[in-house]
Structure formats: structure tokens, C-alpha cells
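Exercise 3.2. Students should predict the tertiary structure of the chain below and write it as C-alpha cells, then compare their answer with the key that follows.

Predict this chain's 3D structure.
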Amino acid sequence: MSDAEAQSHPCLIITLYYLGHEVLKREIFGNDVRIAHFPSSHGTTGSLGLVGIERIALPKPPPSLFTGRKEQAFASLLPYMEKGVMLASTKLGIYAKRFCQARVFWTGPHTSESGPHKLECTDHPVMLFSRQAFQQELAVFSQSGGAPPRCGVTLCFGEELSDTDDLSSKLITVQVPSRPCLFKTLQPLVTRRPWIKI
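Answer key:
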């Protein structure tokens, strides 16, 4: 793929959910994005002093989505999300770095440890998705068929998260499919082998 073609594809696709309801979807053409709660006085644009990093502000929930205790829990969580989480797409994979005070948990296909996986506040970003591991899984898939390799990660703010959890019970979740991998590499394979299902 040429540089021009690569630039026409997003590096990251961010889909944000409240209680399992999609409230925002954004294509990110840069390598980095920060997802956070930005108080109204700060606006929703700018870079928090970090040049070239896109920002996604947690939107207001749709009317009547949160009620009772869920509404109180959501309002209480927002102040702890002000510094947010930064995601980066590189040639090696998808990385995350937590800056907020809120707890952040994640699930993904390329971890050797059992969950839940907590994203700690550290100096170094954490790899959530490995492109090398994906390519290895893809090679097995191309030869043997079966289930296609998983191609993305999920983050959950303020609550623990495991692979079997129902996302409709979680206040704030973010799904990040590694879309360039999926459509540039996996889809042509399925086209050539129509009996393989995605």
C-alpha cells in the first residue's frame, strides 16, 4: 500500500458507549488521541499542551439514558476522567497510557495473563494490541480457516471489565478495532476464500 493510500485510512476508529448505547464514533487519522472529560470552561478542542494530538470529549448522555443510581454514578465518575486516556497507533500495535484518576480496565486478544486487566498510571504506555501477533494468527487462519483473529480492544472507565461481561451494564466503554489490519489484510483473504466467515 502506498503512502497516499495509507493516509486515506484512519489510524484508529474510536466508538464510545454509555450502558452499551453508542454515543460517539470518530475516525482518527493521526497516530494519537486522548479521550477524556473536558469541563465546559476548557472547551472540546485543543491539545492539552500536546501538539498534534486529537481530543475526544466524553459527550453528554442522551436524555433518560441514565436514571437513579446510574445517573449519580456517571456524574461522580466524570471529574475523575478529566485527564483521560491516550491511545496511540504504531507499526507495532495499539498502545494506551492512563492519565486520569479513574480506574481503567481493558480486554484484548494479545495478553498472556488472566483478567481483569487494569491500566495503571505509569511512565510507559501499555501495548493493548500486537500487530505481530495478529499477523501470526492471520497466517494460521489463512491456512486452516476457522474463527478469524480478533482485531481490536475494549476499555472500560471506572469499572472492572472481563471478556464475558455485558457491556450494557457498564457506564462508559470504548471499543477500538484495529480497522486498518482488518480491512487491508483480512477482507481480501475472505474474498479469495468465500467459505470463510468474518
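Discussion points: The first helix runs from residue 3 to 7. The domain at 3-192 is CATH 2.60.200.10 (Tumour Suppressor Smad4).
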